[in-house]
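To start, one record:
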Amino acid sequence: MQSIGRSKPAFENHEAQEKRYTTCYMCACRCGIEVTVEKNQVRFIRGNPNHPINKGVLCAKGNAGIMKQLSPAKLRKPLMRKPGTERGAGEFVEVEWDEALDLLTERLRHIRATDPRKLAFFTGRDQMQALTGLWAQQFGTINWAAHGGFCSVNMAAAGLYSIGQSFWEFGDPDWDRAKYFMLWGVAEDHASNPIKIGIEKLKRRGAKFVAVNPVRTGYQAIADEWVPIRPGTDAMLALSMCHVLLSRDLVDWDYLGRYTNAPFLVVNTPGEPGDGLIARDADGRPLVWDASQEAFVNGTTPGVEAAMFGEYTLPDGRKARTVMTLIAEKYLDEQYSPERAAEVCGLQPETIERLALEMAHVAFKETIEIECEWTDWAGRKHDRFIGRPVAMHAMRGISAHSNGFQTCRALHLLQVFLGTIDVPGGHRAKAPFPRHIPPPVKPARDTAPNTPLSSPPLGFPTSPEDLVVDDQGRPLRIDKAYSWEAPLANHGLMHMVITNAVNGDPYPIDTLILFMANMAWNSTMNTNSVQDMLREKNADGEYKLPFLVVVDAFHSETVNFADLVLPDTTYLERHDAISMLDRPISEPDAACDSIRSPVLTPDRDVRPWQEVLVDLAGRLGFPAFVGEGGKPKYSGYTDFIARWEKAPGIGFLAGWRGSDGSKSMKGEPNPGQWEKYIENQGFFQHHLPEHMRFFRFANRDYLDWAKEVGFNASAEPIIMELYSEVLQKFRLAGQGLYDGPLPPETVDAERLVRYFDPLPQFYVPLEEQRVEGQDYPFHAINQRPMHMYHSWDSQNVWLRQITAQNFLFMNKARGESLGLVDEGWVWVESHNGRIRGQVKFMEGCQADTVWTWNAIGKQSGAWGLSKDAPESQRGFLMNHLISELLPKDGELADEQRRLTNSDPVTGQAAWYDLKVRIYPATAEESGTSWPQFTAVQPLPGAPAPLTEIRYQTHEAVHLRRSLSDILKRR
C-alpha cells in the first residue's frame, strides 16, 4: 500500500480555483452560470441551479462559452481604416483609445450641433436597449433602433396592440399546469433551456404537445403530433380553428364579455368618416348595449350586462354593431372553413377540426381551479382562479413573414376564445407585462440641435397623427419606421438602414454606428449588394455612407467595412444590467432581473461598450449624464446603473434598493447595489403573492402594485382588444375618410386599406404575391440549430465540431421526384439571385419547403477561421437570395416607389417569404459553395486560427492503475 500511495498522480489544486456567478450570453435565454476560474482562465462553466431561468440546466452553447472566450477572432485594440485604402479591403492600423474616442467625439459633437438625424445608431442582439435608447434620446437622433425589427417586432407589436403582452419575453406557457400545448413556428435555438425544462414537465404529466412547423427538428421532433404547415399560412390555420369553435359554440363567452372589447359597439356607416370606429359617449368611453337597462351605457362600468351580439341605432342615428357580431360574421364565413384552410395550409380538413375540438375539450372539460381569494378591478371578490389549461408559444416562424403581425393577432384571438390568457394552465404574462393597450409611449418626431428628444425614439402610435413624417407625409427616420410604409414599426427597420442611407432616401446621413450587428453578412438581406453599397461612392470620390463605426467583440464580416472599430469585451469580462426597463428575466410568478459581473480580466486593450457610451455621453454633455458645470455626473457604467432614476425610486435594477439595500422594486439608489447582486449569484427575484399571479389584466391588487412600481401609468383594467380601433383609423386614412393626416401616395393608401384590417386576417405574403409560383415552387426558410445562435457561435471550435457546414434540407420524396441526389450539389435560385450548396433529404420536412441552418456559411477568413474552413468553402448563406425590397409589380412597376420587403404594418423583415426553384449543379460546379468572396485579411496582431479542438488549463492526468490499486485504494 505504501508503494501505491507513492505513485498517486498529482491532480489540480482546487483550492486555487474560484467559483464566480454571472449571466450567460451565448444566446438570448440569459441563463445563470457558475464559472470556475483559475489564474484568469476559465476552468469550467456550468448552469447555476439556483437561477430562476435555467435552474442549473445549460446547453451546448453555454458550456462552450470557454471556447468563445479563447476565440482568435476577438478584437484586441481600436482600429482605423488605413489611410489610402478602400473600405472593405480590411486594412487597418491600431490606434489608442484616447485617439479613437477624441475623433468620434468631435464628429458626434458636430452632428449633434447641426442635425442630430445625421447620426444613425443601430444595435443587434445587445440586451441593453434601455441604455442605448436613452443615449440616442439624449443625443437627439430619431435614427435609433435594435434588432427586433428584423427578428420579432411582429410578435411584440401584435401582442401589445391586442392583449397587453405576447409570446417570447413577454409571457410563458404555464408549464406546471398546462394539459395541452401548441408550439407555433419556434426554432430550436430560441429559449432553448427554459423550453426544454417546460417540455419535460409537460411530458412527465402526460400533457399533449402539438408542434405547428414546416420542419420537424429540435422541439418538434419530440412533439406528440407534428403539423407540417405550409410556411406563411399560420393565420389561416388559427382562424379556421376559430371558425370551428364559433360554429360549435365552444367559446368562453364570460371571459370575452368581461375582459375584452367583444361587446363594444362599432360604428357601421360604410363610406363615411368614422366608419368602423368604436362608438363612444361624451367622455370618450366605449358604448355597449345593456340588455337589462335597454340602454347604451359606458362599457367599462362594473356590472353591465352588455349584449354580445346585435345591431343597434345609436342616439345620433348612426348604425352600430358589436365587435362580436363582426367577429362571427367574418370567421363563420366559408373562406375560414377547415376545407378551405386545408387547401391553403397544405393540411387535412379533419386535422384542423380535430385540433380545435381537442383544445376546446381540454379548456372546457378539463378546467382547473386554484382556490385563492382575489379581487378584480371593480372590487368584486372571487374565491378561486379558473384556469383553461391550453397553452401556446410562438416565435420567428410566425413573425418573420410579411403577414406575421396579423398572424400573431390570430393566435391571440384563438387563445382568447378559449379563455387562456393569464389564467392557470394558459399563457401567462411576465413582469413588467401586461401593459395597457398599446403602451402610452409615442415615438419622437421632432429633432433640434443640441437638444434631447422629447420622448423615446421608439413608441406606439395610436393614430396617423403619431407618425414620424413631415408635413408632406414623407418619412423623417432613415429606416422609414413610423411612416405610411410601416406605421407601427415599434422596433424600427434595421434591415433598411444601409440601403436607405446609401441611396439618400429620405436623406443622406453622416455616421452610422453598428453595435453587435453583422449587417455586411448574415444580419442583412441581399448580402452581396449591401457590401457593394458600403463601398459605393459619390461622383466626388467620397463614400455615400461617409463614416461607419463598428462596435463588436469579434472579427465579423462587418468589421472589414468599418472606418473605426471599437473593440468590446466578452460577456465574461464586463458588467451588464439585464433590466426590467428593458429585457428582464422575469417568470410568471416573479419579477426578476439580473446582472453580469466580470469573472475574467481582459488580456486585450478593449472596453465594454456600455462604459464607452457613458463616457461619450459625458464628453458630449448630455443633460442626463452631466451635472453642474457640465462635468460628467457618473464615474462609469456601474455608477450610472446604480444612481440613474427613470422616476423617483425606479432605476435599472430593482433589487436591493434604498440607501441600505432593504427595498425591492422601488427605492432610493443604493451605492452597494452591485455588490448585493454579486452576493446573490447575480440575480434578483420578487415573488408575487398567490392572489396576484393570475388575471393580472383585471386583478386589482396586481394593477395597483404595477402602477406603484412603475410598470404601468395607471391602475385601470387592461381590456384586451380583439378589434383594433388603431388599425381602423389607419384604414380610414387609406380610404380618405379619416379626419386627420392622409397618405400622400396611392400605393400607401392601398396597403392601408388591404392590410390594416381591425380584425385578424390572413393574406398571402407580399413577395409571394409578386412571384410566379410555377417558376419558384418552394418556400425557403432558415433557422438556427440549438447549439448555435446567430453568427456568434459558428466560430466556436467546440460547436463547429457539431456543425461546420450547412445543407439545404428538403423532403425526401419531393427531392427524388425532381431527380435530385441526396448530398448532391444544387443551385437554388430566387427572383433576386442564386446560390450553390449541397442538398440533404429528410422525412420531417413539409413537401413544398426547403430550409437550412442560417449563419453557418462564412466569408473566408472572417471570425478567426482559416481561409479554407468548411464554413466558407462548403457553407452557404440564404441571405443572398433575399431582397430588402419587394419585386417590381405589374405594368406600372417602373413608376412606383420600391417598397420594403417587410410586414406592411410593422416593418418586420420578411425573411421567410422567400420562394425559390432548385436544379442540379454540374459535376464541374460541384464541391464548393457559391458565391465566393475575397478572403478577409487578418487584423493587426491577430493570432493564427485555432487548430486544436481541445482545451485544458492543466496537463492531462492519465491514470494507469493496476488491478491491485483499483481493488485496494479507498
The CA atoms of residues 551 and 822 lie 41 Å apart. The first strand starts at residue 18 and ends at 23. Residues 97-114 form the longest helix (18 residues). The chain has a mean pLDDT of 95.
